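Page 47, continued from p. 46.
Same chain as before, 413 aa.
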Amino acid sequence: MNRSGFHLGVLLVSALALAIYARRLDVSPPRHPDEVDLSRQAVALAQTGRDADGQRLPLYFRLHDNVWTPPVPVYMTAVVLKVRASASAIRIPSILLAALDVALIALVAARLFQRPAPAIAAAVLLALTPSHFINGRVATASIYPIAFELVWLLGLFVYVERRQRWLLAGSTLSLGIGFYSHPVAVLMMPVYLGLTLAMLRRVDRSAATALVALAGFAVPLAVMLPWFMRHHDLFRVTLGDWGLHTLANPRDGLRTRVFNWTIAARRISLFWDFFSPSYLFLTGGAGLVSSTQRTGLFLGVLAVPLCAGLYELVVRRWNDARWRLVCLGFILAPLGAAMFEEPRAAGRALAMLPFGILIAAAGFDYLLTAPKRALQYAAIAAIVLIPFQFYRFYQDYFGGYPVRAAAAIARSE
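Result:
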């Protein structure tokens, strides 16, 4: 397949994902209170240029009481509402981002594999991932960090090939902007910056290169300084709610949160629970907003290529700094979610998806080219079962899931 054929294939898969994700938005899932709060701010911003509290073009938005949300989802929703104002329009930005994720992961995989087939396969796998589908249809912030994560990976991997520093700056700039996409991103984007700097030590030890990476990340964060000074008390509490207790209250945060072994042990337990096979492949998240609780974060059949891919990365690809970053990214992805101390909060751990899909694509590549026929048959069986398993999930999503989700929302109110 030539380059134009590959790009056409990526567009086709993304368009199909867009069509599948946009179906029956008014049926499933039921409207969640978080969507209502976000849409209230987005509508006010689209109509007046101010939030619902009268603040002009604020950096952060108050959802209710002292609960604040990052700006990227609100501003993107406001832009869509300028074009199309309807009840279901607030979910359109999430759908567009989900389709963009599908295209971006294909471009990232193409850099890793240097072949079109595994790259297209990665796009299909992400499109058919239940947690990506579910969160790509709701007007919450959960889906937003993935696009910034993928732009970061794409820019970084292209930089490794071409060694043009503007690509590196654009890569970490994406992390800096992504900092404003989700509460978990406040914790995870600096982690990804750390992975970037660690990778640069392997491919380019220049201090100037590291400074370029740091500068790209720091530029978007400079906007936060005047906001923090004007809203110190409110934002300080918000930082505490988002898990940054040390920054919110340095003196008490270090004593009660960082060096509190009871809390540390609980967070470590929550962190490892995100790697539970039941969470990854069987039941998914604990809540019915980001999970149907009838399928895992990934399709169950993906357990085979994902395990094979981890083996492939550690045994055969570990010397490649890019694949090492993918493996470490997957391992560290639930770190931010664990800091919120919410067990199996799928909406906070979606950073696992791009890394997991890339590893699964490597697993399929390994199994299909393995000398043992049994491994090839296992890969073929998994490929055959993927659409059937997704169809089963899809049927439940528009069947029993809306009833279960509506009941759960009613109990929480």
